[in-house]
Amino acid sequence: MPTPTWRRIAVERGKQKDTRTGRPSSLDAQSRRRVLDALASGTTVPEVARATNTSRQTIMRIRARGSG
Questions:
Q1: Residue 43's pLDDT band (boundaries 50, 70, 90)?
Q2: What whole-number distance in Å separates Cα of residue 60 and Cα of residue 42?
Q3: Is residue 43 part of a domain?
Q4: Domain presence at residue 63
Q5: Per the domain annotation, does 65 fall within a domain?
Q6: Which residue of 29, 47, 49, 61 has the fewest CB atoms within a 10 Å radius of its CB?
Q7: Which of 38, 51, 11, 52 lies closest to 63, judged by CA?
């Protein structure tokens, strides 16, 4: 199914403005750094998830991606 014209236009505008598309991140860069630090110090994934008020899956995703 071809992409609707309005969608192509929106994507092109986003590229011109260097705008991110998609769902916003649930944690900012500083929070992600704290998550990685907590995991490195031995805190468990569920404990970090509770402390940051996010899901375990989000914490595991951050762990898998590392600092980058």
A1: very high
A2: 14
A3: yes
A4: yes
A5: yes
A6: 29
A7: 38
pLDDT digits (tens, 9 = 90+) for 46-67: 999 999 999 999 999 999 998 6
What lies within 8 Å, CB to CB, of 57 at 6+ separation is none
Q: How many residues does the chain have?
A: 68
Q: Which domain holds residue 39?
A: 29-68
- Alpha carbon distances (Å) from 41 to 35, 37, 58: 10, 6, 18
Can you give the pLDDT at residue 67? 61
Q: Return the pLDDT at 33.
A: 96
Q: What is the DSSP letter of 4?
A: P
Number of domains the chain is built from: 1
Residues 6+ apart with CB under 8 A from 66: 36
- Give the pTM: 0.68
Residue 35 domain flag? yes
Q: Hey, what are 60's tokens?
A: 């595991």
